[in-house]
Amino acid sequence: MPEYKGMVQPVRATDDEMRKIHIEPVPDEQKPEKALEFLDQIRKKFRSFVMAMESCTKCGQCAENCHTYLGTRDPNNIPTNRAELIRKIYKRYFTLEGRWFGKLVGAEDINLDVIEQWYSYFYQCSQCRRCAHVCPFGIDTCEVTFIGRQLLHWLGITPKLHASVGAAMEKVGNHTGLPKPGIVDTLEFMSEEIMDEFGVEVEFPVDKPESDIMYIPSSADFLLNPYTLMGAGMFFTYIGANWTIPSTVTEAGNFGLLFDQYYTQRGNVMRLLNAAQELGIKKIVWGECGHGWRAAKMYIPSLADRPVRWPITHIHDEIADMIRKNELKLDPNKNSNPVTLHDPCNYVRACGLNENMRTIIRKVTVDFREMSPNGENNFCCGGGSAILFDDPEMYQRRILLSSKKAEQVRATGVGKDGNGILCAPCSICKAQLYPMVEEHELGVEVKGLVDLVGKALVWK
Amino acid sequence: MKLLIGQILPYITVTLFTLGILYRLGRWAGARIIHNITLSPWLDTNGQVAVRIGSEAFLFRNLFKFDIGLWAGAFLMHFALLNILGGHIVGFGLLGEQFALIPGLGISPELSKEMSDLLGTVFGILLFVALLYLLYRRVAMEKVKLVTKTSDNLWLIYLLVLVGVGNIMRLFHPFHVEYELVRDYIVALALFQPVVNMELLNNGFFLVHYLLVQILLIVFPFSKLMHLFGMFAERWIVNRVYKDPAPGLPNVDVAAARKAGLGLPSGDAVEGGM
């Protein structure tokens, strides 16, 4: 069902697919009533949500600061209006103001159409938090769409993409459904590639007991972004680390964050902690994945059901630290093409990676140009929160959602001669930008940051 | 009417205002900060947090950074409002002689009263103009119009009337209110003495102004005006201290690894990289 009363919607999971991820879909006629029941439960828990519902003054500042609204010009894609889709219900049923004054303050009765609106617009939001960053109060619409998506999930409405990823996570521990033999094969192939291309011997240890470091790669790096994983392998070999990749959690991402922060997200966290204990490791290092790094860094402490005994850092933190200590010999001339950096939203607004990414990129490239705005002011690629839908209607929408990004990249001029590099160190950004740089004809190749590090390492 | 607005309603207003605010704050406190959703780049110390929240709350830092027009209107409005509220308290409390109390300036009580009058007049007009500008934005600017609900406009109009009536008392002499009358009235109210026959309540403009203020205070806790407190509650969720775990990998000695030539094919002097 790509459209509902003129609204675009991602293809949704079938009832059977929902049952696979432990949700019994609610029949349509019961949905409004159930939605209210779930909303009432969840609103009493999350203050971030209550504040978003109760303290917006509708100043309008978020409008021109949201890439989704800039790309689509659909009023419901203005962050405060997107939140209003749920706020109107919240007001009507849970505030005195809404009960007394109704329509005057924008309160509205719930019905099936409202729920369908949620599904359309909460899955056009990239949860990039730029609205939280610019809001005078710091109201985080991401918290609203998180909870909106959670309610939809409990009602049995989840995009096919997200639901199938949730099922794969539970089955094999990664998003792409890659089993252990496939992982080992791919890594062996990568070793050969590294030997051919860089003349270096790199081994990717899988499930090696008594390792010091457990590296969590994004599963997309096995298939779509091989140079990121190869770069990480080269880095760990270069520094002589005793490291391993756990076959049970070959996934830096955690789609649970994006549609089910209860069962799905928690399940992946437990897998990770089990693997860390079984392998006897001392530290966990995270691969390039934006939402996944946020889920790991900021959510594991509050989701874990036991003490977390292992410090968790990002591979960029470690590389930048070594660069500052002058421990790595890097040749920026190995990356001589003009480069610009797309700041993944979760890195810069939720995980504080701004400076470390720049420490690295300045050391491994010759011609680095900042885009504007950048850092915590950066705009999302338009794929944030995995709205990477492939059906024709949603794909058209993705082109619109990435138009602000395209404008930014064009302004840097890196793609003018068709040989630019757009460094986007996040798997979702990469998956969004691979096709989008073609759609917008930007003349750049999309790469990760560790890719560039791997290339720049001087071995002798 | 005088009995209702001047004698009975004020006690009801104060009660509802206080209880209402406690109800709203309790409602917010009941829900918890579940996950850490602070915005990065992180703030390192509580001092930095205080500066950030303070500059957002009192200088409207984000509006200044991202929409200077909105900043001008909103800041002017709130700044004038703050001064007017302060002026009401200090001016009526000290009969306009507050500036004479500042030691070392040599301001006479008469001059102080004139200054007080002048400041009140200026801020009253500024507030009215700023409110008009904010209303203009809501009806004329597309991006603000698209997010505006009827109640948002009604609030602005309500405030314009409230401020307008106040300005009439200030600008037109026949309707002027003496500081002393107000002070005596408030003191009497606070001491639970009868006030119905006081001279102040014979001023029709005063009664209207006073009634509008009381309605505003009663509705305040249940309305968007609670953003006064919401501001701090929300900021405290997204602007808090966060400390990164220290980088540094266990049992890694890069110098030794490079000396051993790890990664280089054995006995082979291959150039690293391409």
UniProtKB/TrEMBL annotation, chain A:
SUPFAM superfamilies: alpha-helical ferredoxin (SSF46548)
A GO term for molecular function: oxidoreductase activity
Stored Gene3D superfamilies: Alpha-helical ferredoxin (1.10.1060.10)
Residue ranges occupied by any 4Fe-4S ferredoxin-type domain in the UniProt entry: 47-76
Pfam families associated with the record: CCG, Fer4_8
UniProt cross-references to PROSITE patterns, sorted A to Z: 4FE4S_FER_1, 4FE4S_FER_2
Keyword field contains Electron transport: yes
Keywords of the record: 4Fe-4S, Electron transport, Iron, Iron-sulfur, Metal-binding, Transport
TM stretches of this protein: none
Protein name per its UniProtKB record: Fe-S oxidoreductase
Organism taxonomic ancestry: Bacteria, Bacillati, Bacillota, Clostridia, Eubacteriales
TrEMBL record, chain B:
Pfam family, one: Nitrate_red_gam
Location of the NarG-like domain: 70-230
Organism lineage: Bacteria, Bacillati, Bacillota, Clostridia, Eubacteriales
Gene3D superfamilies assigned to the protein according to its UniProt record, in alphabetical order: Transmembrane di-heme cytochromes, Chain C
Annotated Gene Ontology cellular component terms: plasma membrane
Protein name per UniProt: Nitrate reductase gamma subunit
Organism: Desulfoscipio geothermicus DSM 3669
Entry's Gene Ontology BP terms: anaerobic electron transport chain
Coarse class of the protein's main subcellular location: membrane
